[in-house]
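Appendix C. Worked example: PIG-L family deacetylase
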Amino acid sequence: MGPHRLDTSIGPPLNLDAQTRLLVIAPHPDDESIATGELIQHVRAAGGAASILLLTDGDNNPWPQRWLERRLRIGAAERERWGLRRRGEVGLALGRLGLPQEAMHALGLPDMGVTRALRADLLGALRLWAMQLDVFRPNLIVFPALTDRHPDHSAAHVLTRLAVAQWQGGNPRLLSYLVHGHADDQGALVEIASSTEIHENKLAALRQHRSQMALSGRRMHRLADRPEHYREMGGARQSLPWQPSPALRPWLKLTVADHGGVRSWSWREAPLERGGEGGYLLRLPETEGPRFVKLHMDLPSPWIFDRWGWCEL
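Step 2, the predicted output written as structure tokens:
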């Protein structure tokens, strides 16, 4: 097949051909269809290859399971069964997108626990990414945006960027996608072309995620119905984007993840100083590659989305 060039809004053209090797980072089952269902079809139409790195099985999702299984209590065995069901749905969705089940590689990280895994064993997590990079050798990686409000998504961004920065096997193009939250204007916008047939097939792939469509079908359809677009990597910040209330500071922590590993401080003990425009600067030695900072509170909360999230310095 010949080259397949997709229209872009601002960023450089996205040229797809038989040499394209697309790696999609999907934190949960259904992210691959919502965020990249059309892009995967374009890659396959151009003769390229695609692989899906599924980070979690989406097993920490009790309300749809209670509804469909007519049960109240969800224990470890029930969660494991639900995760296997959701992983199987990814295989069905990929079939609609033209990929075999073998294109999915599941890491089995804890659902709603990717940030925790990153903080507990960053080097171990990066080894998992490195193995996938070495085996598949992608030249295009599409992964969640740093500003995505779901903590598994933003942590996936951090892990992907750090892994690629250390990888010696190539220099893949990096494009991020947003599922949860509001887009910012950091990084050039890359918007792919579509057609009615391609879009309808994407929605057909989404419908294979029956466990999620049962209670959230309208919301899922709305997310997948948006035009697919991606962002090139934007610039890093000089100062932290947060100026938290003094009332919250006794419970706040800052966590840094970079080439040197993971470090955490309470807000009061962090190496902070005021910048010229009133923002906070984090004073740390220079490092190779990207550096990411997260503001958070280690307190239980019924709310799954991040209040502050990560930023890149």
